[in-house]
Protein 1
Amino acid sequence: MSEYQAPLKDIRFTLNQICDLEDILSLPKFAENDGETINAVLEEAGRLAAGVLAPLNRQGDTQGATLANGVVTTPDGFAEAYAAYRDGGWNGIQFDPNYGGMGLPLVIGNACSELWNSANMGFSLCPMLTQGAIDAIGAHGSDELKETYLEKLVTGHWTGTMNLTEPQAGSDVGALRAKAEPAADGSWRIKGQKIFITYGEHDYADNIIHLVLARTPGSPEGTRGISLFVVPKFLVNPDGSLGQRNDLRCINLEEKLGIHASPTAVMSFGDNEGAVGYMLGEENKGMRCMFTMMNTARLSVGIEGLAIAEGAYQHAVAYALERRQGRAIGATEPGASAIVEHADVRRMLMTMKAQIDAMRALCYVNGQALDLARNDEDEERRAWYGQLAELLTPLSKAWSTDLGCEVASLGVQIHGGMGFIEETGAAQYYRDARIAPIYEGTNGIQALDLVMRKLTMAGGDVVRRYLGEMRGLDQDLAQGGAAFAKMRTNLTSALDGLEEASRWLLESMASDPNAVAAGATPYLRMFGMTVGGYLLAKGALAAAALADQPGADTPFLAGRVATARFFGEQILPQAPALLAAITAGAEPLYAIPPEQLVN
């Protein structure tokens, strides 16, 4: 078993050379923070990850969370780890200091989240949901709801959940049946059952604040008739102390493929008089409020894909360095070679490393765009970065989580037969990674969102503008010389393919929407690879320039260029090849009748 090491050099490089952190820190809201402060925060977050969370990861997988008599117990050491996380103020890293937060940029919160998820994804799911609840209540809550709940949530003394799914309503949220009846005191009484509720019950905190979707009397059918409610585990007295237990309970914990440390609860609301809830936002506008939470969560889940890939990669590298088998071509030392010397193992490791760098760049740039959309002083820049964040969110979520599974699978492959044996720990990354493409809107839904909503923003102008921005790197690559020649050629080809695919999808939207839907997933993959290639090329140019400066960390910077070249020369050429699949239409998908699919 390898020990997790926080990849702080790569994180700092991505923040400073690809995301332009200095631009964010120059905003008035963040003026009190400088690079030294950010470095100190990242160092401490890395210590928490490596020293507290990572040592519990394997135990969380083998022991799991348990339910007995309605009480959930998390694996040994996890409640204590959460106390350390809470007492360090980590839950409020990107939130308002008026509610106990640190007030740092979101992109720094994203970077810390990567560290914690790499170390222990099962643990880190709890803070992720809490942070989504904070966003929803902060954006849509009344002054009374904010006063009652935000400080406790921001400081991590209470945790939050998201309650959407019901047994008959998975991704089709409009089919939910949970009901809310008005009470005389202005509150509501919630009745219904919700499934797949991450950390719906646990032993980390005194109170759990559930955000629950339900229907009010006479509401329209479908998603137009859904409202959102704040439903606490314990009611809160006027003085802020905890009152009586609400009418809700965990009735089961799911047995899952992975993330065993995370209790995934079946929650029952209102078995008796009804669970007391408070409407968040307007009646029948619950989906709008919930999407505030879900959009935050979608980027966070993308970071989970990145994080689990990083953990799997570190595990695989450690094994490849120590495992000796066969003689590598050209080996001069006697005996078996370390498998890291074999070409195909090196190919797998470089594929893992390059894709991790690309995912990190994409997710952090997505966070940067959100920071600028919310805080830039220029109205036009705020508008542009808001659109860019909308465009990048489905890419961050879907492309990164798909790759998280692929990278974790390569980690198992590098271990060979031992990778299939649980004691090595490689399989846990693979099992844990598999939920992320399903979380917060499956990746097929993300692809549909990309083509149906994000591609069509401003009549396609948002995508066209971003394509233009990416093409703007061409001259810099040309001046980079031979080292960047293939990368430049392949990026141009990928951009040409993405431009053609975008044009075809826009033109086909009205005449053949099913053809557009059929091409959505390969389009998302093409888009992700192209953006990843662009961002790594941007970083490689910066690394080459920094290498010429006195005191430069030459081996690290050379590695950044080499990894970007690998992506640009071996992965990026796959992007334009997807054009045929994108434009193939829906006919190949439906050529076989459903009843013949079983044969």
Protein 2
Amino acid sequence: MPSMPQNRLAQEKSPYLLQHANNPVDWYAWGEEAFQKARSENKPIFLSIGYSTCHWCHVMEKESFTNPSIADLLNQNFVSIKVDREERPDIDHIYMQAVMAMSGSGGWPMSVFLTPDLKPFYGGTYFPPEDRWGRPGFTTLLNAIHQKWQTEREAIDKAGDELTRAIQQGIERRMDKTNQPIDAKITLAFAEQMLNQFDFEFGGFGEAPKFPRSHTIAMLLRVWHKHPDPQWWRLIELTLDRMAEGGIHDQLGGGFHRYSTDREWHVPHFEKMLYDQALIAKVYLEAYQASGQKKYADVARSILDDVLANLTDAGGGFYSAEDADSPIDFEHPHEKKEGAFYVWSENEILKHLGEEKGRLFSYVYGIKPNGNASADPHGAFLNRNILTLKHQPADAAKQFNLPIEIVRRQLEDSRIKLLEVRRQRPRPHLDDKILTDWNGLMISTFASAHQALGEEKYQRSARKAADFILEKMKNKQGRLMHRYRDGDVQITGFLDDYAFFTLGLIDLYESTFDARYLKEVKFLAHELVRLFWDQLSGGFFLTANDSEKLIARTKEVYDGAIPSGNSVAAFVLLKAGRLLNDASLEARGRETIEAFTAELKHFPGGYPYILMALDFLLGPTKEIVIAGKADSPETKQMIQTVRSLFMPNCAVLFHPENGESKEQIEKLSPFIAKQTMQDHKTTAYVCENYVCKEPIHDAARLTLLLQSSNQPGDV
């Protein structure tokens, strides 16, 4: 069978662009070649932005970009450019603002029409191929824009100028220096806003679709920690419990899907994103530290082990995502359905588990003969079941008159059996590019998991990933790069790369106490300021001062599915400053928060991660130094004492007894030079603003001291 002809996207590395390499559309990647063609032929640009695990991107490709007649329209009348939003967030941010200004909403695939000088004049998201659902089809749209380009060019140029100017002015307005003082009351205002949005039946915030909103829960943990009102814990507990029980949580393999299409967390959008695994696991780890409840540690492990099994490169980096859609079977590789890899018929459950175990498993996980999807408008899950924890093992023990130990053992045996059966199915598409920013989040979580759970495999994974980034994703000038795939490193790093990866290295230092990582923290934190700081208005730009010049230079602080670069940068600078005894970094962290105080006051619910930075700034923030021999049992016990508690506003340093590492850490953090072992015993120093209490040699006394100044709310 002859191979299909390929367009120039076949030369790219982005999995998303490669998905379109066989389209009849004459696609270009973003770059001067496409811009020059548009200018020389006087054609508008059709800019299509998406990502490889985007369901509606797949739909639009199948319906429109593989359609020869639509391809002819594009090829004759437009210059078509395809962009992976995960590779080029700078392009995506700018043109998403344009689409939202024109249509009032945004999303992917994003479809934007530009003049040859890259100014947007019309845009939207998904368009069906023909007129449908009361909206114009893509064919109608292409013909209309071509006609207007021929007859109303002046009006189009004017519209592009006005929209570009509006985008630029909007960014400039947000950058106006407000000089508003930091207000400690914002954190409680945030909690009150979340309380008003809370779903007291199913947990989470608002109606469907419902997103995990991990950093919202993380900030609520900090509110509860300082203001021990049981209502704050109720918001945290109900949300984490219902999420863990729902279909959004992969009950067999671990990991979390993107979001729930319904209130009950039952029917998910099945893609798995690396950043979700990092952020969700982190908040379950913190809930475990705060409450001591093993169930939260178990959920975190399920996520982390899924990442190790399915999203980890042999070199140590972490892959970006797995698709929601997958083939229905190996005989029909191109016939894909959402969630096909994850869902089950009742007959399949009984066939693979047998009648007795099958009935028990079906009772616990809500299996029904005709399927159990509570929301299925397109009939995608007819006669199929999404596993949700409908009954606890104790309920099943009563229902089936079995000892609970037998129930638990049978359920675990069944889970392992079905997981093995599932492994024989065709897997969803894997986006195997490695992004520095998302890897930074995952490194942070694996390092934190080692601290909270004490499992060495998580530290090894964090260390291996960090070393991969440091060895493979820095250029000769020491600049972080954004994307690695198949041996190819491209795209100079963005703010998020520097902020998120530095966060990962901070947590990795506190996991390993390897001064090499703290040295990288120091270098990257100062580079972050040098490359991205806005000298006029404060805060950080998404792109570096020597990056490609686009029609606008954006600055973001809103914490969406991923926290903003400014939010993480603020926290990173504050904590790095505290670890390194570097007042200049702490000052920049404070100034970052001050640059956005007006926005925080206006709508605190939109900025939970930068509020975590504010919480760190407001303190009290502790510096804890453990001085001793690295391998001694007493030292390990002291370190474990510190790690057993939920202390989010804490910077932990280890001061070795002697050797090269002692010299390194004293040079990096001069403060600890005086915090040494006393009487040849492991010694702990608990300090606030570098003023230390009397040295402690006993882990029990250290526990009492930390607990007395670290009172959590009542669980």
